[in-house]
Amino acid sequence: MRDVRVAKPYARALYDAAVEQNALNPIVTDVNALKQTVEQSEEFAQFLSSPMLSPQMKGETFQTLFAETVHPLTLNFLRLLALKQRERYLVAIADVFLQILDEAAGRLVAKVTTAVPMTAAQQTLLTQQLRAYSGKEVRLEMTVDSAIQGGFIVQLRDTVFDASVAAQLRRLKQQLAKG
Questions:
Q1: What percentage of the chain's residues is helix, strand, coil (to nearest 5)?
Q2: Quick check: helix, strand or coil at residue 121?
Q3: Whether residue 145 is found in the same domain as residue 97
Q4: What is the largest CA-CA distance in the chain?
Q5: Where in the sequence is the domain holding 127, given as residue range(s)?
């Protein structure tokens, strides 16, 4: 909860600055790449959360790592996070930024959990079906969880579609117990 409270003003400021500078597309690309880097690199995640490194050192490291690969606005934003000692909230800020982007575009986010990764064709078909159901553009957030045993679970706003094997087995067990 605290992460979201801290993340909101930073995400809103980044979004507003990107719109103002007509740089929304490259900033979205940067935000997605940074989020993915934090989630996939334990070393980078530890770097962000380390209290042993000074804000100046982190800012200089951001400059070294990203000066050639991200938009100047993104780089300035990262250095600001280091200066304000908010870099540990980078993933939360990215998540809120993407929510703001989706809201501005009138797009819904569907959280999809599957037992195995979905193919691109399956994701496209699911997106089309959810678009037809909701009447809005839909972006999928994919998660893999083998505990559902098969099928999928989709959460679209307050609606949950549970087509998992685990849920089907639970329902079957309940019916058998009733007689």
A1: 65, 15, 20
A2: helix
A3: no
A4: 68
A5: 107-178
Which one of 102, 126, 148 terminates a domain? 102
**Count of all residues that appear for the chain in the document:** 179
- Both 120 and 57 in one domain: the answer is no
**Contact yes or no for 115/26 (Cβ under 8 A):** no
Q: Which of the listed residues 102, 128, 162 is the one where a domain comes to its end? A: 102
Per-residue confidence in pLDDT tens, the chain, 179 aa: 578 899 999 999 999 999 999 999 999 999 999 999 999 999 999 999 999 999 999 999 999 999 999 999 999 999 999 999 999 999 999 999 999 999 898 899 899 999 999 999 999 999 999 999 999 899 998 999 999 888 899 998 888 999 888 888 888 888 888 86
Q: The pTM is what?
A: 0.74
- Please count the structural domains in the chain: 2
* CATH number of 86's domain: 1.10.520.20
Q: Which amino acid is at 33?
A: A
**Residue 142 β-bridge partners:** 112
Angle among Cα 35, 145, 33 to the nearest 5 degrees reads 15
